Amino acid sequence: MIERIRELEAISRRLEPGKEERASVSDAVVGFGEGFLDRLPELKAYEIEKEAAKKLRDSPIADEGVGVGELLELFDDAVIAPGVNPASERFLAYIPGGGIYYSSLGDFLAAVTNRYAGVRFAGPGAVEMENMLLDWMADLVGYPKGSGGNLASGGSIANLTAIVTARDAHGLKPRDYERAVVYLSGQVHHCIQKALGVVGLGECVQRYVPMDGRYRMAPAELERAIAKDRADGLIPWLVIASAGTTDVGAIDPLEEIGQIAKAEGLWYHIDAAYGGFFALVDECRPKLAGMELSDSIVLDPHKGLFLPYGTGALLVKDVRALRRSHHYEAAYMQDILAEESLEAASPAELSPELTKHFRGLRLWLPLKLHGLEPFRACLEEKLLLARYFHQEVQKLGFEAGQEPELSVATYRWVPEVGDANEFNQALVDEIHRDGRVFVSSTMLDGKFVLRLAALTFRTHLETIDLLLAILKEKVDELTARR
Which residues form the domain of 349? Predict the structure, then answer.
């Protein structure tokens, strides 16, 4: 047995490369990253041809390792080249993730030190860092001292966690689900419907409250719907407002909705994954007034703070409600639980995750290195870029949607002859084939419209001017072709 152990030890020690080998591989990886950033301005924002991804199948996992140079070449060909390039300044679709450089260094430190961020007993510094960041966010949205939260993988899981907390706080049982009512707007992010299904609330009544002309939930209609549902013997339970919808960037009347929710005894949740961090900009704070009235709120640092994908945040005003829904005990955790307290609760006590990535470091390091000023300036710049685009695209002859509340603008071309929806679909297809910029589309009131989402931190004025030039070029080409 000893002989076999030593044989296995000799092989397993390959997992602990020496200093020279580490330097060789890390230099190659960092060099690739630096080279990627250097050539990023010339890379396409979108490559419509995706066959290259299949090259990964030609290099299967095997007993023997492969050189780092060969792997980086494969990574470049099969992963970097095809599809969307979210790191590009010309990524103007959806609501992007950022990918600021110092966050990658935070992730490197989190991975190489392998600090466990699930419970305070094991990683007191890691948990303290994450709780400190959550306290900062709670102060930003106007939550009182003593609220709590969790850094999640994104808005989807954060919203799901909030819905579970709201369900349990209201004491809903499976027998109640068919009569329990959730109030939301038609502009709510689809992760909300998905979360309701995942947590077993797919049978509850989803009441879509009518919206005003700017795609915002109408408070008077909400009030009427709640009264009618109560009269009909249903159980009004949860209202979900949006602070920055994906389609148009709309902000629901947060304050009025919050007052109704409080008067009616409903749990009030705000999905501010996109718009929440615009509270850093003085101009936006009045638009976001009412966030402090919510019982729970979601913000995504990988959106408004430009972090790499995989960073969302949930805040709950009553941390006891969050803990009641997610606290579980096991005999093997008895040493850990002895140190837990509500005032300094661990993430494992406040979320579905026990094992979790040390996400705090990817947020803490850039905030500390940069300070808040460039984040605030970048957000304000994106607001102005969206308004600039909204103004200039109309000069080209496009029909524009509402003036942007945040950094999303909608627009479409109305041809003199032919179907407008068909023309705009063709326009999007042409832009995607071109690949210099990447835009997206949506449907609003039966109309096929294009979207500009200016939130990539690398997007600046020259990017918007390029999009405007490409739009004119493609419209002229399509019009001539028809």
Answer: 107-370
The contacts of residue 370 (CB under 8 Å, 6+ apart) are: 102
Cβ atoms of 109 and 96 within 8 Å: the answer is no
Q: What is the pLDDT of residues 24-66, one digit of tens each?
A: 999 999 999 999 999 999 999 999 999 999 999 999 999 999 9
Alpha helices, H only, 232-329:
254-264, 301-304, 319-326
Task: Answer for the pair 317, 145: CB distance below 8 angstroms, yes or no.
Answer: no
Contacts (Cβ under 8 Å, ≥6 apart) of 280: 140, 304, 372, 375, 376, 379
Each residue of 82-104: pLDDT tens digit?
999 999 999 999 887 789 999 99
Shared-domain flag, residues 161 and 307:
yes
List, for residues 294-331, the tens digit of each pLDDT value: 999 999 999 999 999 999 999 999 999 999 988 877 76
Name 3's Cβ contacts closer than 8 Å, sequence gap at least 6: none
Contact 251, 244 (CB under 8 A): yes
| 351, 380: one domain | no
Any alpha helices (H) in 316-396, and if so which ranges?
Answer: 319-326, 334-337, 360-370, 373-395
Q: Last residue of some domain: 370, 387, 406? A: 370
Considering the domain architecture, whether residues 322 and 411 belong to the same structural domain is answered as no
- In this prediction, residue 121 has a pLDDT band, given cuts at 50, 70 and 90, of confident
Give start and end residues of each alpha helix (H) in 58-100: 68-75
Establish how many alpha carbons lie within 13 A of residue 452's alpha carbon, considering only the half-sphere containing its beta carbon: 36
Coil, helix or strand for 277? helix
Query: Which residue, of 370, 405, 430, is where some domain finishes?
Result: 370
Q: The dihedral of CA 239, 244, 245, 246: what is its sign?
A: negative
Express each pLDDT in 361-372 by its tens digit.
999 999 999 999
Q: What is the CATH number of the domain that holds 152?
A: 3.40.640.10
Global pTM reads 0.95
Distance of CA 139 to the CA centre of its chain: 20
Q: What is the CATH number of the domain that holds 472?
A: 3.90.1150.10
Q: How many domains does the chain fold into?
A: 2
Give the list of residues 6+ apart from residue 85 with CB closer than 8 angstroms, or none: 43, 44, 45, 46, 47, 91, 438
Per the model's pLDDT, the better-predicted residue between 440 and 338 turns out to be 440
- Assess if residue 34 is contained within a domain: no
- For the CA atoms of 223, 186, 153, 442, what is the dihedral angle to 10 degrees? -160
Mode of pairing for the β-strands spanning 408-412 and 399-400: antiparallel
Chain segment 373-391, per-residue pLDDT in tens: 999 999 999 999 999 999 9
Give CA–CA dist 120/101, Å, rounded.
28
What pLDDT is stored for residue 348 in this prediction? 85
